[in-house]
């Protein structure tokens, strides 16, 4: 494609956006688009179409998936302009095989760890695609107009089955309701994309008059030797927070005495700390999450060796409970802070920083001398330096000396791309508080 020449739909973008793409970023925001040119004979650009991207001089920068709804208007998928759907699907297959091979190296399936993220969207060169494995269940999320398509669903299911074989019994697409609303996507399929109990080929279900076994949407998976319940029809994100897997183990190594786990969800940090602490209290605002946490507790107490700590659950708002604990001078030897993302957009960053500051300030004040603080942020709009600065400010206000023992991120199966800072979303500091 020569400057000024268009094959298929095209977008010309600002110089700032062009520089960002040339530096390795993969997103074009709607505010960065200077002009859109539909394919010849068409009146507009179909949602999810492949679109050529040029700078404002007409020099091609590659091809991307177009969204007619998201503020991220284009997600780059190739360095060549004019990429066809067939060529795109071929590249998806190749990148998926590469992603699966990488996970065999960095997160192999073993008796003690049989859950991991197999595809991490842009970090694996597969924008809009997430795949998580929980034991024998595979969960897919197709998060854009260009990826939430039948041809891609079939390709992903076929390739995963070919690569992983009989170890996967069910493949389910689990939609993210908020993202589907933002992307204006049609409802996702309600039946599994693959079920080992089916008596016919991929995608054939009862609707075609073929009998099929009920798909098993629940399983028990294992991380760091702990067993956890999984239900593909419940919970947040894809169902569990696999990105914290190695941080759970690190917290277990450092934790001791009486521990408090704020925003415990289904007990990930709390149950790991129950191996090294005397007493652990897990706090969450969701009763449903705490019910799963309690089932996870019972599951691991029944195993040989069990858990050494007494574990309790409290249903409460994190901020309200921390204020109450501070007022009554409660003291803990270990505190974990793992709240949901406070900053869902750039506009929310200021409020998010205030929230992180308050939560960390109260926790630091509540720690006994020599206590351990494990504090996390999963807001990609809050950078690592900003988060460290907030914790430092809290330490200063509390007049406590805080030593940083470890600066951590997501587990290796959630790789960071140096030119895409959004992939470095998870921050975890492990600190000693004097």
Key features of this structure:
434 residues, 3 domains, Archaeosine Trna-guanine Transglycosylase, Chain: A, domain 4, alpha/beta, seven-stranded mixed β-sheet, Rossmann fold, globular, 29% helix, six-stranded mixed β-sheet, Transcription Regulator spoIIAA
Question: What is the structure about, briefly put?
Answer:
The protein has ten helices and 20 strands.
Proportion in β-strands: 25-35%
Gyration radius, rounded = 23 Å
Instruction: Kindly report the name of the CATH homologous superfamily of the largest domain.
Output: Vaccinia Virus protein VP39
Quickly count the helices.
10
If classified by CATH, what would the architecture of the largest domain be?
3-Layer(aba) Sandwich
Helix- and strand-based class?
alpha/beta
Order of helices and strands: EHEEEEEHEEEHEHEEEHEHEHEHEHEHEE
Average residue pLDDT? 92
Distance between the termini: 63 Å
Instruction: Please count the beta strands (DSSP E, at least 2 residues each).
Output: 20
Q: What portion of residues is helical? A: 25-40%
Low-pLDDT residue intervals, each spanning 5 or more residues: 1-6, 199-211
């Amino acid at each position: 494609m020569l400057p000024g020449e268009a094959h298929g739909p095209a977008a010309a973008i600002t110089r700032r956006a062009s520089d960002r793409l040339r530096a390795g970023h993969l997103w074009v925001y709607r505010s960065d688009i200077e002009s859109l040119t539909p394919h010849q004979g068409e009146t507009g650009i179909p949602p999810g179409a492949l679109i050529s991207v040029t700078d404002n001089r007409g020099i091609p920068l590659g091809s991307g998936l177009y969204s007619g709804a998201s503020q991220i208007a284009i997600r780059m998928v190739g360095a060549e302009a004019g990429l066809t759907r067939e060529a795109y699907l071929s590249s998806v297959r190749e990148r998926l095989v590469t992603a699966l091979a990488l996970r065999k190296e960095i997160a192999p399936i073993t008796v003690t760890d049989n859950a991991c993220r197999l595809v991490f969207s842009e970090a694996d060169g597969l924008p809009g695609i997430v795949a998580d494995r929980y034991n024998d269940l595979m969960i897919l999320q197709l998060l854009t107009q260009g990826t939430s398509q039948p041809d891609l669903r079939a390709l992903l299911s076929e390739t995963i089955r070919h690569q992983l074989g009989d170890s996967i019994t069910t493949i389910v697409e689990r939609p993210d309701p908020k993202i589907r609303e933002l992307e204006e996507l049609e409802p996702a399929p309600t039946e599994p994309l693959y079920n080992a109990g089916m008596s016919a080929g991929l995608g054939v279900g009862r609707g075609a008059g073929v009998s099929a076994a009920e798909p098993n949407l629940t399983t028990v998976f294992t991380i760091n030797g702990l067993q956890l319940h999984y239900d593909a029809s419940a919970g947040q994100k894809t169902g569990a927070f696999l990105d914290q897997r190695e941080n759970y183990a690190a917290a277990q190594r450092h934790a001791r005495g009486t521990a408090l786990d704020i925003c415990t969800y289904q007990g990930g940090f709390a149950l790991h700390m129950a191996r090294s602490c005397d007493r652990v209290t897990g706090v969450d605002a969701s009763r449903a999450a705490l019910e799963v946490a309690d089932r996870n507790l019972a599951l691991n107490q029944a195993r040989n060796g069990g858990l050494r700590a007494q574990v309790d659950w409290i249903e409460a708002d994190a901020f309200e409970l921390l204020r109450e604990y501070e007022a009554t001078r409660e003291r803990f030897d270990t505190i974990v802070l793992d709240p949901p993302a406070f900053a869902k957009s750039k506009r929310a960053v200021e409020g998010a920083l205030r929230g992180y500051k308050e939560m960390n300030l109260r926790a630091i004040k509540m720690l006994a001398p020599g206590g351990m603080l494990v504090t996390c942020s999963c807001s990609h709009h809050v950078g690592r330096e900003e988060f460290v600065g907030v914790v430092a400010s809290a330490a200063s206000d509390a007049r406590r000396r805080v030593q940083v023992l470890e600066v951590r991120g997501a587990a290796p199966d959630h790789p960071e791309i140096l030119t895409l800072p959004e992939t470095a979303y998870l921050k975890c500091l492990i600190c000693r508080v004097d």
